[in-house]
Amino acid sequence: MSDKISFLPLEVLLSILAYLPFESLLAFGETSRTNFKSHALCLRRLRVGVFEKRVHSMISLLQAGWATPDQLSSSHENDGSRSDYTISVIQPGAYAKQGLDGKPHAKCKLQRKRDIRPQDAQEQTIQAQNKVLARLMNRYGPSLVKLEFMAYDLDVDGAKALGTRCRHALRYLALRFEHPHIRDGPMRPTAWYYPAPGSTAWNLLAGIGNPKDIGITGLETLILERSGITPWQLAMLVGKNPRLRVLKLRTCRGAQPEFLDWLGGVQKDKDDAAIEGQRLAPGAKLEVLWLENCHRLLSHPIDEQKDSSCDEGFEWVRNLSNLQSLSFRECACISSEYVDRANKAIWKIAEVILPYAFVTQNSAMEVDPLLS
Known about the structure:
- By secondary structure, this protein is α/β, with parallel strands linked by helices.
- It has helices at 2-6, 10-17, 22-29, 33-42, 54-64, 69-73, 106-115, 118-140, 156-165, 201-206, 231-239, 257-263, 336-347, and strands at residues 45-51, 84-90, 146-150, 172-176, 221-225, 246-250, 267-268, 274-275, 288-292, 325-327, 351-353.
- It has 3 domains: 9-42; 43-241 and 250-254, no CATH class; 265-359, no CATH class.
- α8 (118-140) packs parallel to α9.
- Pfam families: F-box.
- It comes from Aspergillus udagawae.
Protein backbone atom coordinates (compact mmCIF):
# COMPACT_ATOMS: atom_id res chain seq x y z
CA MET A 1 0.00 0.00 0.00
CA SER A 2 2.87 2.33 0.82
CA ASP A 3 4.43 1.72 -2.63
CA LYS A 4 1.17 2.57 -4.41
CA ILE A 5 0.76 5.78 -2.42
CA SER A 6 4.32 6.88 -3.10
CA PHE A 7 3.63 6.88 -6.86
CA LEU A 8 0.75 9.35 -6.54
CA PRO A 9 1.34 13.00 -7.50
CA LEU A 10 2.27 15.04 -4.44
CA GLU A 11 -0.79 17.30 -4.64
CA VAL A 12 -3.08 14.24 -4.72
CA LEU A 13 -1.24 12.61 -1.83
CA LEU A 14 -1.48 15.76 0.30
CA SER A 15 -5.20 16.03 -0.42
CA ILE A 16 -5.69 12.48 0.84
CA LEU A 17 -3.55 12.97 3.93
CA ALA A 18 -5.48 16.13 4.82
CA TYR A 19 -8.43 13.97 5.91
CA LEU A 20 -6.44 11.88 8.38
CA PRO A 21 -6.67 12.46 12.15
CA PHE A 22 -3.41 13.62 13.68
CA GLU A 23 -2.55 10.23 15.18
CA SER A 24 -3.03 8.51 11.82
CA LEU A 25 -0.96 11.18 10.08
CA LEU A 26 1.92 10.58 12.50
CA ALA A 27 1.66 6.83 11.99
CA PHE A 28 1.81 7.30 8.21
CA GLY A 29 4.92 9.46 8.55
CA GLU A 30 6.72 6.67 10.40
CA THR A 31 6.33 4.10 7.60
CA SER A 32 9.13 5.38 5.36
CA ARG A 33 11.45 8.30 4.76
CA THR A 34 9.42 9.46 1.76
CA ASN A 35 6.17 9.29 3.71
CA PHE A 36 7.79 11.20 6.56
CA LYS A 37 8.47 14.11 4.21
CA SER A 38 4.94 13.94 2.83
CA HIS A 39 3.27 13.94 6.25
CA ALA A 40 5.36 16.95 7.32
CA LEU A 41 4.28 18.89 4.22
CA CYS A 42 0.65 18.03 4.88
CA LEU A 43 0.47 19.74 8.25
CA ARG A 44 -0.31 23.37 7.40
CA ARG A 45 -2.34 24.63 10.35
CA LEU A 46 -1.51 23.72 13.92
CA ARG A 47 -2.95 24.61 17.31
CA VAL A 48 -0.91 23.35 20.23
CA GLY A 49 -1.40 23.90 23.95
CA VAL A 50 1.02 22.68 26.61
CA PHE A 51 -0.32 22.55 30.16
CA GLU A 52 0.38 20.82 33.45
CA LYS A 53 -3.09 19.34 33.89
CA ARG A 54 -5.74 18.08 31.51
CA VAL A 55 -8.42 20.24 33.11
CA HIS A 56 -6.29 23.33 32.41
CA SER A 57 -6.05 22.28 28.78
CA MET A 58 -9.78 21.64 28.43
CA ILE A 59 -10.79 25.02 29.84
CA SER A 60 -8.25 26.84 27.66
CA LEU A 61 -9.48 25.04 24.54
CA LEU A 62 -13.05 26.05 25.31
CA GLN A 63 -12.21 29.68 26.06
CA ALA A 64 -10.18 30.06 22.87
CA GLY A 65 -12.89 28.44 20.77
CA TRP A 66 -10.58 25.65 19.68
CA ALA A 67 -13.10 23.00 20.70
CA THR A 68 -16.71 22.60 21.80
CA PRO A 69 -17.89 20.64 24.86
CA ASP A 70 -19.19 17.90 22.56
CA GLN A 71 -15.81 17.56 20.87
CA LEU A 72 -14.00 17.30 24.20
CA SER A 73 -16.43 14.77 25.61
CA SER A 74 -16.23 12.58 22.51
CA SER A 75 -12.42 12.82 22.34
CA HIS A 76 -12.64 14.15 18.77
CA GLU A 77 -10.31 17.00 19.49
CA ASN A 78 -8.20 16.57 16.36
CA ASP A 79 -10.04 17.20 13.12
CA GLY A 80 -7.93 16.71 10.03
CA SER A 81 -10.64 17.55 7.52
CA ARG A 82 -8.89 20.79 6.56
CA SER A 83 -5.30 20.06 7.60
CA ASP A 84 -6.17 22.01 10.76
CA TYR A 85 -4.95 20.09 13.80
CA THR A 86 -5.38 20.81 17.51
CA ILE A 87 -2.94 19.14 19.91
CA SER A 88 -3.05 19.16 23.71
CA VAL A 89 0.18 18.21 25.47
CA ILE A 90 0.07 17.49 29.20
CA GLN A 91 3.48 18.27 30.70
CA PRO A 92 3.47 17.56 34.48
CA GLY A 93 4.91 20.45 36.47
CA ALA A 94 7.85 20.44 38.83
CA TYR A 95 5.54 19.76 41.77
CA ALA A 96 4.00 16.63 40.26
CA LYS A 97 5.69 13.30 40.97
CA GLN A 98 3.95 10.07 40.10
CA GLY A 99 4.50 6.57 41.41
CA LEU A 100 4.29 3.28 39.57
CA ASP A 101 0.51 3.37 39.78
CA GLY A 102 0.38 6.74 38.02
CA LYS A 103 -0.84 8.57 41.14
CA PRO A 104 1.16 11.32 42.84
CA HIS A 105 2.66 10.48 46.22
CA ALA A 106 1.58 13.06 48.78
CA LYS A 107 4.86 12.76 50.73
CA CYS A 108 7.01 13.25 47.62
CA LYS A 109 4.83 16.14 46.48
CA LEU A 110 5.23 17.98 49.79
CA GLN A 111 8.97 17.35 49.79
CA ARG A 112 9.38 18.83 46.30
CA LYS A 113 7.35 21.87 47.31
CA ARG A 114 9.84 22.53 50.09
CA ASP A 115 12.84 21.94 47.83
CA ILE A 116 11.87 24.15 44.88
CA ARG A 117 10.80 27.77 44.86
CA PRO A 118 7.68 28.81 42.90
CA GLN A 119 9.82 31.03 40.66
CA ASP A 120 12.09 28.12 39.77
CA ALA A 121 9.11 25.84 39.20
CA GLN A 122 7.60 28.44 36.88
CA GLU A 123 10.81 28.72 34.86
CA GLN A 124 11.08 24.94 34.56
CA THR A 125 7.49 24.71 33.35
CA ILE A 126 8.03 27.42 30.72
CA GLN A 127 11.22 25.71 29.54
CA ALA A 128 9.41 22.38 29.21
CA GLN A 129 6.55 24.01 27.28
CA ASN A 130 8.92 25.69 24.84
CA LYS A 131 10.89 22.48 24.31
CA VAL A 132 7.68 20.90 23.06
CA LEU A 133 7.14 23.87 20.73
CA ALA A 134 10.74 23.70 19.47
CA ARG A 135 10.46 19.99 18.67
CA LEU A 136 7.25 20.55 16.72
CA MET A 137 8.70 23.51 14.82
CA ASN A 138 11.88 21.63 13.93
CA ARG A 139 9.73 19.00 12.25
CA TYR A 140 6.73 20.93 10.88
CA GLY A 141 7.75 24.61 10.97
CA PRO A 142 8.70 25.08 7.29
CA SER A 143 5.29 23.86 6.06
CA LEU A 144 3.10 25.76 8.55
CA VAL A 145 1.01 28.71 7.42
CA LYS A 146 -0.98 29.03 10.65
CA LEU A 147 0.20 28.43 14.22
CA GLU A 148 -1.46 29.03 17.58
CA PHE A 149 0.50 28.27 20.74
CA MET A 150 -0.83 28.19 24.30
CA ALA A 151 1.60 28.14 27.21
CA TYR A 152 2.80 30.36 30.07
CA ASP A 153 5.42 32.39 28.16
CA LEU A 154 7.94 32.33 25.32
CA ASP A 155 11.61 31.61 26.00
CA VAL A 156 14.77 31.57 23.88
CA ASP A 157 14.33 27.97 22.68
CA GLY A 158 10.77 28.53 21.48
CA ALA A 159 11.52 31.90 19.88
CA LYS A 160 14.60 30.55 18.10
CA ALA A 161 12.63 27.64 16.69
CA LEU A 162 9.91 29.98 15.43
CA GLY A 163 12.38 32.51 14.04
CA THR A 164 14.41 29.93 12.11
CA ARG A 165 11.86 27.29 11.04
CA CYS A 166 8.86 29.54 10.27
CA ARG A 167 10.60 32.48 8.63
CA HIS A 168 8.76 32.95 5.34
CA ALA A 169 5.78 30.59 5.04
CA LEU A 170 3.96 31.41 8.28
CA ARG A 171 1.03 33.79 7.73
CA TYR A 172 -0.88 33.52 11.01
CA LEU A 173 0.73 33.48 14.45
CA ALA A 174 -1.10 33.57 17.79
CA LEU A 175 0.81 33.31 21.07
CA ARG A 176 -1.63 32.98 23.97
CA PHE A 177 -0.16 33.21 27.47
CA GLU A 178 -3.20 34.43 29.42
CA HIS A 179 -4.95 31.70 31.44
CA PRO A 180 -6.60 33.22 34.53
CA HIS A 181 -8.48 29.99 35.26
CA ILE A 182 -5.20 28.29 36.27
CA ARG A 183 -4.82 28.98 39.98
CA ASP A 184 -3.13 25.84 41.33
CA GLY A 185 0.22 25.81 39.52
CA PRO A 186 3.55 27.64 39.93
CA MET A 187 2.07 30.87 38.54
CA ARG A 188 0.66 33.38 41.02
CA PRO A 189 -3.08 33.82 40.31
CA THR A 190 -2.62 37.59 39.94
CA ALA A 191 0.18 37.16 37.37
CA TRP A 192 -2.33 36.38 34.61
CA TYR A 193 -3.70 39.93 34.73
CA TYR A 194 -0.39 41.59 33.87
CA PRO A 195 2.01 41.25 30.92
CA ALA A 196 4.73 38.64 31.19
CA PRO A 197 8.24 39.86 32.10
CA GLY A 198 10.36 41.31 29.31
CA SER A 199 12.75 38.95 27.56
CA THR A 200 15.43 38.96 24.88
CA ALA A 201 13.68 35.92 23.37
CA TRP A 202 11.52 38.31 21.35
CA ASN A 203 14.67 39.55 19.58
CA LEU A 204 15.02 36.12 17.97
CA LEU A 205 11.41 36.13 16.83
CA ALA A 206 11.82 39.55 15.21
CA GLY A 207 15.31 38.92 13.83
CA ILE A 208 17.02 41.55 15.99
CA GLY A 209 20.76 41.39 16.67
CA ASN A 210 23.67 39.43 15.26
CA PRO A 211 22.08 36.05 14.37
CA LYS A 212 21.67 35.60 10.62
CA ASP A 213 18.81 33.88 8.82
CA ILE A 214 16.41 34.34 11.70
CA GLY A 215 13.17 36.26 12.19
CA ILE A 216 9.61 35.88 10.88
CA THR A 217 8.85 38.02 7.83
CA GLY A 218 5.63 36.81 6.16
CA LEU A 219 2.91 37.35 8.78
CA GLU A 220 -0.53 38.63 7.81
CA THR A 221 -2.09 38.12 11.27
CA LEU A 222 -0.36 38.50 14.64
CA ILE A 223 -2.10 37.85 17.97
CA LEU A 224 -0.27 38.29 21.28
CA GLU A 225 -1.93 37.67 24.65
CA ARG A 226 -0.11 38.50 27.88
CA SER A 227 3.21 38.89 26.12
CA GLY A 228 6.30 40.56 27.55
CA ILE A 229 7.45 42.00 24.22
CA THR A 230 8.65 45.61 24.62
CA PRO A 231 7.45 48.53 22.44
CA TRP A 232 10.73 48.55 20.51
CA GLN A 233 10.72 44.78 19.96
CA LEU A 234 7.09 44.95 18.83
CA ALA A 235 7.88 47.75 16.38
CA MET A 236 10.73 45.71 14.93
CA LEU A 237 8.52 42.62 14.60
CA VAL A 238 5.71 44.54 12.90
CA GLY A 239 8.17 46.36 10.66
CA LYS A 240 9.69 43.06 9.47
CA ASN A 241 6.23 41.86 8.33
CA PRO A 242 4.97 44.27 5.64
CA ARG A 243 2.01 41.98 4.80
CA LEU A 244 0.53 42.39 8.29
CA ARG A 245 -3.17 43.31 8.16
CA VAL A 246 -4.46 42.07 11.53
CA LEU A 247 -2.79 42.93 14.85
CA LYS A 248 -4.47 41.91 18.10
CA LEU A 249 -2.76 42.68 21.40
CA ARG A 250 -4.20 41.74 24.78
CA THR A 251 -2.48 42.44 28.11
CA CYS A 252 0.61 43.26 26.07
CA ARG A 253 3.65 45.09 27.42
CA GLY A 254 4.39 46.56 24.00
CA ALA A 255 1.08 48.46 23.74
CA GLN A 256 2.52 51.79 24.87
CA PRO A 257 2.76 55.29 23.30
CA GLU A 258 6.26 54.57 21.97
CA PHE A 259 4.95 51.76 19.76
CA LEU A 260 1.58 53.33 18.94
CA ASP A 261 3.12 56.64 17.82
CA TRP A 262 5.55 54.70 15.63
CA LEU A 263 2.69 52.64 14.20
CA GLY A 264 0.76 55.77 13.25
CA GLY A 265 3.81 57.68 12.02
CA VAL A 266 3.43 60.37 14.70
CA GLN A 267 6.36 62.27 16.13
CA LYS A 268 6.23 64.22 19.39
CA ASP A 269 7.97 67.49 20.29
CA LYS A 270 9.43 68.39 23.68
CA ASP A 271 5.98 69.29 25.00
CA ASP A 272 4.62 65.89 23.92
CA ALA A 273 2.57 67.52 21.16
CA ALA A 274 2.00 65.57 17.96
CA ILE A 275 3.89 66.58 14.82
CA GLU A 276 2.43 65.51 11.50
CA GLY A 277 4.82 63.33 9.51
CA GLN A 278 5.20 63.22 5.74
CA ARG A 279 5.92 59.50 5.34
CA LEU A 280 3.35 56.74 5.13
CA ALA A 281 2.67 55.37 8.60
CA PRO A 282 4.08 51.86 9.23
CA GLY A 283 0.58 50.75 10.22
CA ALA A 284 -1.24 52.35 7.29
CA LYS A 285 -2.11 48.94 5.79
CA LEU A 286 -3.59 47.53 8.98
CA GLU A 287 -7.26 46.60 8.74
CA VAL A 288 -7.78 45.31 12.29
CA LEU A 289 -6.11 46.65 15.44
CA TRP A 290 -7.22 45.41 18.84
CA LEU A 291 -5.70 46.75 22.05
CA GLU A 292 -7.49 44.95 24.88
CA ASN A 293 -6.83 45.05 28.62
CA CYS A 294 -3.87 47.35 27.91
CA HIS A 295 -3.58 50.09 30.54
CA ARG A 296 -0.49 52.02 29.40
CA LEU A 297 -1.76 53.44 26.13
CA LEU A 298 -1.28 57.04 27.29
CA SER A 299 1.90 58.79 28.40
CA HIS A 300 -0.10 61.14 30.64
CA PRO A 301 -3.76 61.58 31.69
CA ILE A 302 -5.86 63.40 29.12
CA ASP A 303 -8.15 66.33 29.86
CA GLU A 304 -11.58 65.15 28.78
CA GLN A 305 -14.10 67.85 27.91
CA LYS A 306 -17.64 66.64 27.41
CA ASP A 307 -18.57 69.30 24.86
CA SER A 308 -15.48 69.01 22.66
CA SER A 309 -14.35 66.30 20.28
CA CYS A 310 -10.64 65.57 20.23
CA ASP A 311 -8.28 62.61 20.18
CA GLU A 312 -5.44 63.85 22.37
CA GLY A 313 -3.10 60.96 23.02
CA PHE A 314 -4.54 59.00 20.10
CA GLU A 315 -3.41 61.10 17.15
CA TRP A 316 -1.75 57.99 15.73
CA VAL A 317 -5.17 56.55 14.87
CA ARG A 318 -5.70 59.21 12.17
CA ASN A 319 -2.92 57.80 9.98
CA LEU A 320 -4.23 54.22 10.02
CA SER A 321 -6.20 54.94 6.86
CA ASN A 322 -7.28 51.36 6.08
CA LEU A 323 -8.44 50.52 9.60
CA GLN A 324 -11.85 48.85 9.68
CA SER A 325 -11.92 47.53 13.25
CA LEU A 326 -10.42 49.12 16.38
CA SER A 327 -10.87 47.74 19.89
CA PHE A 328 -10.08 49.23 23.29
CA ARG A 329 -11.99 46.58 25.24
CA GLU A 330 -11.20 46.59 29.00
CA CYS A 331 -8.70 49.45 28.69
CA ALA A 332 -9.21 51.33 31.95
CA CYS A 333 -7.01 54.30 31.02
CA ILE A 334 -9.65 55.88 28.75
CA SER A 335 -13.40 56.38 28.90
CA SER A 336 -15.88 54.97 26.42
CA GLU A 337 -17.42 58.42 25.88
CA TYR A 338 -14.04 59.86 24.85
CA VAL A 339 -13.40 57.12 22.30
CA ASP A 340 -16.94 57.30 20.94
CA ARG A 341 -16.77 61.08 20.40
CA ALA A 342 -13.33 60.86 18.76
CA ASN A 343 -14.48 58.20 16.33
CA LYS A 344 -17.67 60.01 15.32
CA ALA A 345 -15.91 63.34 14.83
CA ILE A 346 -12.43 62.41 13.57
CA TRP A 347 -11.59 58.76 12.95
CA LYS A 348 -14.87 57.50 11.42
CA ILE A 349 -13.87 53.84 11.68
CA ALA A 350 -16.59 51.33 10.80
CA GLU A 351 -16.22 49.22 13.97
CA VAL A 352 -14.92 50.59 17.25
CA ILE A 353 -15.21 48.44 20.36
CA LEU A 354 -15.39 50.70 23.40
CA PRO A 355 -13.50 50.04 26.65
CA TYR A 356 -16.73 49.43 28.51
CA ALA A 357 -20.41 49.70 27.67
CA PHE A 358 -21.86 53.04 28.71
CA VAL A 359 -25.48 54.02 29.22
CA THR A 360 -27.06 57.14 27.71
CA GLN A 361 -30.56 58.54 27.76
CA ASN A 362 -31.35 56.78 24.48
CA SER A 363 -29.89 53.43 25.50
CA ALA A 364 -32.26 50.49 25.43
CA MET A 365 -32.84 48.63 28.66
CA GLU A 366 -32.88 44.85 28.50
CA VAL A 367 -35.62 43.14 30.49
CA ASP A 368 -36.02 39.43 31.12
CA PRO A 369 -39.48 38.58 29.67
CA LEU A 370 -39.89 35.74 32.16
CA LEU A 371 -39.72 38.19 35.06
CA SER A 372 -41.91 40.91 33.57
